[in-house]
């Protein structure tokens, strides 16, 4: 409508219909909404906002969705996303990854005030929306930290609820099979309202308490004729192999069932998509290989190029400006000389420490480990070169930690250990052997720094005035 033009009746009708549509959309999202099903079954995952690691789990979800598509699974790929998930992420999941996104309101967590409640799990009860996907016969609900090794479509033959026990007494909710049912979904919401007991305040405790008798149920074996089973079943461990088994044995082969899916239920900062988790956790490279074949690393590459150019430029600059940098750090002074010396020592130590920490912070955390570690070593070397030039320190002692970190990567990545115990002992032995070299380097840095301080504090520079007569250097 142009300025000055009177509104037409059709415009008002359009606005009214838009409001009605939005209200209807909110009403449907309150109970999970509907999805246009193309297959009878679905693999589903969830995504929500509100944690410091939202982007990392977004990347992990996309990699898992694409890896399932690459396996040519006979099922829809569904993401249950809270309404606060950015629209750009939703469009990427739908248009680039081929997922069907269901927008939902966050389920209110009534257990958030429990003493043992972990706030990073405050919205994991959104997983209950899987029971509202009634357009499907069966749904395999997944966490984003699953690594698929082969197609698992036989899971759709399982009963009303099926899960694997990676803990001897508690099944794991990182992967389970369910038959959607609005009756079950509404009953679960009712149990939340009346405060049903929940051991951990998250989806693991609630769903585990809702299906208490699963441990006594028979093991799932897919019927050869392709029919679906009724009832509840335990899934073989091969559908949820805990990565810690691999780390202990440095290989895995579970005899009871197919070796299909690996899960990473450990520490949150050692998930496989974090570059620093490899080679601490060897399977991280397998996850990144899957990402390389599916999603790729185009999102992180501009930052990699920018950082590399900056580091190389700094190295060139420090070689050219070395005398100027040293003049900035050491100034002749007659007042509070001991205080100045102590301050410079502290500054030098903290600068060396920062040289090995800052590159970790600025590198994109979901970058491929090989590329990320290379960028880390370039960045730490660059910052160490600044410190060497600024404080007039010898290069080798400052780079001893740099060489030690490089060595430990090779020790951890050695592929021919018999098991995880031997690997751990090798790492411990390497650290034990490196400790004396680290100590000697620290002593050497301290001595060189002391010599530089005394020389710069008590002897004038060329071209500067001589010290007053009667001035003696004290020892």
Helix and strand topology:
Blueprint: H1 9-29, E1 41-47, H2 54-70, E2 76-82, H3 87-96, E3 100-104, E4 138-142, E5 146-148, E6 161-164, E7 175-178, H4 182-193, H5 203-210, E8 232-235, E9 241-242, H6 243-249, E10 261-263, H7 284-293, H8 301-320, H9 322-329, H10 337-362, H11 369-391, H12 395-413, H13 420-458
Helix pairs in contact: 8-11, 9-11, 10-11, 10-13, 11-12, 12-13
Describe the protein.
With 475 residues, the protein is an alpha/beta fold. The chain has two domains: 41-296, Spore Coat Polysaccharide Biosynthesis Protein SpsA, Chain A (Alpha-Beta Complex), CATH 3.90.550; 299-329 and 336-458, no CATH class. Helix content is 46%, strand content 9%. Strand 2, helix 3 and strand 3 form a beta-alpha-beta unit. Helix 12 runs antiparallel to helix 13 (420-458). This is Putative glucuronosyltransferase PGSIP8.
């Amino acid at each position: 409508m142009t300025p000055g033009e009177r509104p037409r009746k059709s415009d008002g009708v359009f606005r009214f219909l838009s409001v009605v549509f939005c209200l209807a959309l909110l009403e449907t999202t309150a109970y999970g909404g509907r999805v246009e099903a193309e297959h009878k079954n679905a693999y589903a995952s969830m995504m929500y906002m509100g944690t410091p690691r939202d982007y990392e789990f977004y990347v992990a979800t996309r990699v898992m969705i694409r890896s399932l598509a690459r396996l040519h699974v006979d099922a829809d790929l569904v993401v249950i996303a809270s309404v606060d998930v950015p629209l750009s992420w939703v469009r990427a999941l739908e248009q680039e990854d081929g997922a069907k996104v269901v927008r939902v309101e966050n389920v209110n967590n009534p257990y958030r005030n429990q003493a043992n409640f972990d706030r990073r799990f405050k919205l994991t009860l959104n997983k209950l929306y899987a029971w509202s996907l009634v357009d499907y016969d069966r749904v395999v609900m997944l966490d984003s930290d699953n690594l698929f090794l082969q197609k698992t479509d036989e899971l759709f033959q399982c009963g009303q609820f099926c899960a694997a026990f990676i803990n001897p007494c508690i099944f794991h909710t990182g992967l389970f099979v369910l038959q959607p049912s609005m009756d079950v979904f509404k009953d679960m919401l009712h149990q939340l309202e009346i405060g049903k007991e929940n051991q951990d305040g998250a989806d693991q405790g609630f769903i585990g308490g809702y299906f208490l008798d699963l441990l006594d149920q028979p093991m799932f074996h897919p019927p050869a004729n392709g029919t679906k089973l009724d009832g509840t079943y335990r899934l073989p461990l091969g559908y949820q192999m805990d990565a810690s088994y691999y780390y202990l044995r440095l290989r895995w082969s579970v005899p009871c069932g197919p070796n299909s899916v690996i899960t990473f239920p450990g520490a949150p900062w050692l998930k496989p998509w974090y570059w620093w988790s490899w080679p601490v956790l060897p399977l991280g490279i397998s996850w990144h290989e899957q990402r390389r074949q599916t999603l790729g690393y185009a999102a992180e590459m501009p930052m990699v190029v920018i950082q590399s150019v900056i580091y190389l430029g700094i190295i060139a600059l420090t070689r050219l400006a070395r005398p100027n940098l040293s003049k900035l750090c050491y100034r002749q002074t007659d007042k509070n000389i001991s205080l100045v010396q102590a301050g410079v020592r502290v500054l030098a130590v903290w600068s060396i420490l920062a040289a090995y920490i800052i590159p970790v912070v600025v590198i994109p955390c979901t970058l491929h480990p090989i590329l990320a570690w290379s960028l880390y070593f370039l960045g730490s070397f660059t910052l160490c070169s600044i410190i060497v030039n600024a404080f007039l320190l010898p290069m080798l002692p400052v780079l001893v930690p740099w060489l030690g970190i490089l060595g430990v990567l090779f020790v951890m990545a050695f592929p021919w250990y018999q098991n995880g115990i031997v690997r751990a002992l090798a790492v411990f032995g390497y650290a034990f052997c490196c400790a004396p070299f680290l100590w000697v380097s620290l002593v050497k840095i301290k001595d060189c720094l002391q010599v530089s301080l005394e020389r710069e504090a008590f002897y004038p520079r060329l071209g500067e005035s001589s010290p007053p007569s009667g001035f003696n250097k004290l020892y």
